[in-house]
Automatic annotation (TrEMBL):
Single GO term (MF): catalytic activity
This protein's name: Uncharacterized protein
SUPFAM superfamilies registered for this protein in UniProt: CoA-transferase family III (CaiB/BaiF) (SSF89796)
Keyword Transmembrane among UniProt keywords: yes
Ranges annotated as spanning the membrane: 38-57, 64-84
UniProt superkingdom: Bacteria
Organism: Litorivita pollutaquae
Keywords of the record: Membrane, Transmembrane, Transmembrane helix
InterPro entries: CoA-transferase_III (IPR050509), CoA-Trfase_fam_III (IPR003673), CoA-Trfase_III_dom3_sf (IPR044855), CoA-Trfase_III_dom_1_sf (IPR023606)
Amino acid sequence: MAHAAGHDINDIALSGALWATGPKDGMPVPPLTLLGEFGAGGMLLTFGMVAALLRAARTDKGDVVDAAIVDGAASVMGFIYGFLANGGWENARAANRLDCGAPFYGVYECSDGKRISLAPLEPQFFALLV
């Protein structure tokens, strides 16, 4: 898809990462451009550039770096896809520990109108919260 037009939202949708974001019964909500362009695409591009520079320094030969946002986003989602394949992830929003499906993982409004984010995933942190 190197010659197809697209933006971050298209790339993370193609990788499957967009499906996991947003309210349970609503449309997916894109995570700004942090996941695709900066996180996933930037990670692959940076790694490719470092590898190409190391090769050039050692061999005096240049290289072509192919860094696709879709590939990076799919790579970042690897652990989720692994959970899904092993029955540890339900393919529905707000049904899992890391997608606000757990009552102790999310953002909550306080009595003063401000908000607090909670994520005590480990037992010792959950015990401290309780």
